[in-house]
Amino acid sequence: MCRHIAYVGPPVALGTVLAQPSHALVRQSWQPRQQKYGTVNADGFGVGWYADGDPVPGRYRRQGPIWADLSFADLARVVRSTALLAAVRDATEPGADGEAAAAPFTSGRLLFSHNGAVKGWPGSLAPLAATLPPAELLTLTARCDSALVWALVQHRIAQGDDIPQAVADTVGEIAEAAPGSRLNLLLTDGTTIVATAWGDTLWYLTEPGRSAVVASEPYDDDPHWRTVPDRTLLVATCTDVLLTPLKEPTE
Predict the structure, then answer these.
(1) What is the pLDDT of residues 35-72, one digit of tens each?
(2) Choice among 2, 14, 144, 178 that is catalytic
(3) Contact between residue 193 and residue 8 where contact means Cβ atoms under 8 Å apart
(4) pTM for the whole structure
(5) How far apart are the first and last CA of the chain?
(6) What is the DSSP letter of 171?
(7) What are phi and psi of 78, to 5 degrees?
(8) Max CA distance (Å), the chain
(9) Which domains are present in the chain?
């Protein structure tokens, strides 16, 4: 499992979202309040953000715990952005992928994270993996379940699906192939946040017309945080939040 968060809005220092709030992502790495599976998120972390004039986000990722990285603390204090996506990781299984398995994953303008686990990994997704072109499998950045989930989302986008549809359909096909999977996905293009609640907690906080935050759990005790029902697709911008029920796989 892991904890993740995305923000869109006026320029802010990364630390304003990730470190300063009383229960920010940094604290959630060792003391999450709502995490149902796992206890400590110390198997890697990452943050991606957008800089003025460059459509491709930058990333900073490491394989160790976020609380031990003083370089991240400096970066979070001085780097400002209008959009970011960050995650702290609790690995589903031991592995040697290290930093490569830490979200956010990226492709072009997109940043992506998966909070959860695929049931029966890796065998359960072998049929879905076989539908991808060999070149796409060979370019997976890690051998973990999240990397394959990201590859499946990317493939749908490349075939012409819009981002919300690609995310929703990917969750549906994985849930059918691997029942009992936890599939909270989080994705942003720097303007819109797309997320799913499927098996774990998801919340959002908005300041209408100004900003939106979507996270595994609230980073403070602001009463305006709203929970996302399980089996739901969320699409959020600075001006609007749309919640759409996701269909259960057919028996």
Answers:
(1) 988 888 999 999 999 999 999 999 999 999 999 999 99
(2) 2
(3) yes
(4) 0.96
(5) 27
(6) H
(7) -110, -25
(8) 51
(9) 2-245 (3.60.20.10)
Q: 18 in helix, strand or coil? A: helix
Structure-block tokens of residue 111: 């940043």
Residues in the chain: 251
pLDDT tens profile 183-229? 999 999 999 999 999 999 999 999 999 999 999 999 999 999 999 99
Q: How far apart are CA 169 and CA 66, in angstroms?
A: 32
Q: What is the DSSP letter of 53?
A: T
Tens digits of residue pLDDT in 148-181: 999 999 999 999 999 999 999 999 999 999 999 9
* Burial letters 131-164, b for 16+ CB under 10 A, else e: ebeeebeeebebebbbbbbbbbbbbbbeeebebb
- Helices of type H across the chain: 14-18, 25-28, 70-78, 126-129, 134-138, 145-158, 163-177
At 115, the amino acid letter reads N
| Beta-sheet pairing, 45-49 with 105-107 | unpaired
**Residues 23/33, Cβ–Cβ less than 8 Å:** yes
Query: What are the C-alpha distances in Å from 235 to residues 88, 163, 196, 232?
Result: 22, 10, 9, 10
DSSP reduced 3-state for 134: helix
Q: What backbone phi and psi angles, to 5 degrees, belong to 106?
A: -145, 155
Q: Are 233 and 175 in contact (CB under 8 A)?
A: no
Q: Are 110 and 83 in contact (CB under 8 A)?
A: no
Structure-token pair, residue 99:
């930093």
H or E stretch covering 155: helix 145-158
H-helix or E-strand spanning residue 75: helix 70-78
Q: Is 144 annotated as catalytic?
A: no
